[in-house]
Hints:
Strand order of the largest sheet: 20-21-23-24-25-26-27-28
Helix content: 40-55%
Number of strands: 29
Distance between the termini: 133 Å
Largest sheet: 8 strands, mixed, barrel
Amino acid sequence: xxxxxxxxxxxxxxxxxxxxxxxxxxxxxxxxxxxxxxxxxxxxxxxxxxxxxxxxxxxxxxxxxxxxxxxxxxxxxxxxxxxxxxxxxxxxxxxxxxxxxxxxxxxxxxxxxxxxxxxxxxxxxxxxxxxxxxxxxxxxxxxxxxxxxxxxxxxxxxxxxxxxxxxxxxxxxxxxxxxxxxxxxxxxxxxxxxxxxxxxxxxxxxxxxxxxxxxxxxxxxxxxxxxxxxxxxxxxxxxxxxxxxxxxxxxxxxxxxxxxxxxxxxxxxxxxxxxxxxxxxxxxxxxxxxxxxxxxxxxxxxxxxxxxxxxxxxxxxxxxxxxxxxxxxxxxxxxxxxxxxxxxxxxxxxxxxxxxxxxxxxxxxxxxxxxxxxxxxxxxxxxxxxxxxxxxxxxxxxxxxxxxxxxxxxxxxxxxxxxxxxxxxxxxxxxxxxxxxxxxxxxxxxxxxxxxxxxxxxxxxxxxxxxxxxxxxxxxxxxxxxxxxxxxxxxxxxxxxxxxxxxxxxxxxxxxxxxxxxxxxxxxxxxxxxxxxxxxxxxxxxxxxxxxxxxxxxxxxxxxxxxxxxxxxxxxxxxxxxxxxxxxxxxxxxxxxxxxxxxxxxxxxxxxxxxxxxxxxxxxxxxxxxxxxxxxxxxxxxxxxxxxxxxxxxxxxxxxxxxxxxxxxxxxxxxxxxxxxxxxxxxxxxxxxxxxxxxxxxxxxxxxxxxxxxxxxxxxxxxxxxxxxxxxxxxxxxxxxxxxxxx
Length: 743
C-alpha cells in the first residue's frame, strides 16, 4: 500500500527513534522507513536530548523506549518538554510493561500516548499516523485560537459565559477581561460589571436584563462603563440564551466589544450630517426633523408653535469688503447672539437604548438653526400667540444691531425676520418655512431691519412676484419688451430736440408698470441684457426717424450701474451702433447720480472710453444723490438732468427754486447742458426758463408714447402748437441743440 495516501504532509514524517536495544532499534527503524517515515536513531536518552537541542532538525514525533540505562524514557520525556519548541511535539512511549502505574507515569511526564513493544509494525505505524494527525489538528486549533484571539484583540472584543445558578459569576475570556480593563487573575461578577455603569444607567440595564431573562430573548445593547483606571468606554453586549433538555434557560453565552471609537466616529458623522460646521447649529436637515417633532407635539397637546426666519441685511457687503474670514466671524457671532435670545426645551428620544436617560438618550432641542448662507431659523416649539413670536423676533433684531467685531474691525449689521405660526400659517414644516421666507422677503423689501408676520396677502404678493419673475425671463425671447419715447422740447421754439427711451413690458396685451419689473430685473441680473437690447432698439429707431422724416435727434437710454460691471461694455455698445449704422453722438446714455456713486471708481473708466468715441453722458436725477460735487469736474459729462422732485414745487416753495437755480448755475459754470424732467405746468416751464433752463420734458408737452405715434404727434403740433416762451431771446446763450421740425 502507498503510505500516508490520506496525509496532507508534503514530506515524509520525521521520527526520532530512541532505544538502547540496537537490534530492536534497527528492526523498528527498517519497518518504519518501509512505511514512509524518515527516521533518525539515538541509542540513549542523553543522545536524544543532544540531538534535539543541538541541531536544526525538528522531529514530527518522538518514539521513546521506556526502560533505558542512564536517562530512561520517562526522564527523557520530561526533559524534552522543557526544551523550547518541543512543548507540544507528540511523544510515543514504547514499553514492555503493561501495568497501570507505568501508563499513568508516562502521561504524567508529558507523553502523548504509549505503545506496547511488539513486532506488529503496521499497528505502530498506524498509531504514529494517528498521533501526527492529532498533532496537526491541535496545531491548527491553536493557530485558529491564536488568530481569533488576535482578531478579538484588534476588534477589542471578548467572550463571556454566564450560568444562571444564583452566583452571578461571569466567566470571561482573556480578551473579554482585557476589554474590561482587567487581567487574567480577575474574576468579576455580574454585580461588579453593573457597578461600572453610572447610577442612572444601572437601573435601565437591570430592567432590560430582567425583561430579557423573563422572555428568553437575545440580549443586545450598548452600555457606558468606567474602567478601573478612570477611562469611560462604550461597550456593545450581545448574548444568546442556552437551554437544557427541559427547554429552561440555564444561562447566556455572548460577546462584549469596546465600540467607543466606532461610536465617536458615528457621532462625528451624525454631527457633520445634522449640524452646520461653521456655527455648530442644526442644519436644514436637522431643523426639518426637529420642527416635525415640534409640530407632532403641538398637534397632540393642542398648542401653537412658530418658525422665525432671520436674514442678515447686506451681508454681502461684509464679505466683499472685509473678506470671507471676517464674514465667517460675523456669522458665528450672529449665531451666538440669536441662540442667546431664545429658550431651549427637552427633545424627544432620539433612538436611545432603553428609552431612558442612557448615553445619547436625551438631547437638548436647539431652538436655532442655520438655514444656509446668511439665514437662520428660530424654532419656538410652544407659543401662546403670534405676538409672543413677534416679541422674540424683535429681541433677536435688537441684539444683532449691537456692534460686532469682524476681521479686527467694528461692524454694524441689521437683520430682517419673517414669522409663520402653526397651525394658522401652515400644517407642515415646508409650508411654515416657505411662508416665513415670504414674510422675511417682504420685511426686506419694505426697508429691512424689521419683522413681519405672514398673512395671505403676503402670499399672494409673493406668488405674483414669482410669476412676474418667471414671465420676465421669457419676455425678451417673446418680444414683449417695447420702448416708449418722451420728447425733449426746446421751450423757445416748441421743437423736439431729443427724446428719452423708456422701457415698457407689454404682457398679455397690458403694460406692466416699470416700477414692478425694473427692480426685479435688477435683482435677477436680467437688467444687463435688457439694457443692451434697449440701446439696440433705440439705435434702430434713430436710423428709422432719420430715413423716414429726416429727423436728426439724440435719444437717451437709461443705463443701470450694474451694466458697467462688464469689462467689454464699450466694445459691445460700439458693435451695436456699427451694426445699426448709427453715429455715436446720436445715442446718449443716462446714469442716475445714485447709481453713479455706488461704484464711482468702477464706472469712471468706462465713461471716459464711451465719451472718447463720441457717446455723450447725462446725469439723471441730479441733486438726489447727496454726494460730493467733485466728480463733476473729473467725469466726461455733457448734461445734467434736474430731478422731478425739484420741478414739482417750482413756483410754490422758494427752496425748490433755490436748488434748481443752483443746479442751472453749476451747469453753466461747467459748460454743461441742463434739462428739466417732470414739467407738467406752464408756470413750472416759465420759472425754469427764467432760471436759465430752456429744454424741458414732461406731461405738459407729451407723455411717453410708442415710436409709431411720434410722427403723428409731430404733425399735430402744426395744428395745436406746444406751450412756448414768448420773449426776446437776444443775448441768451445757445445751450441745447435744435433739430428740424417735421411736418
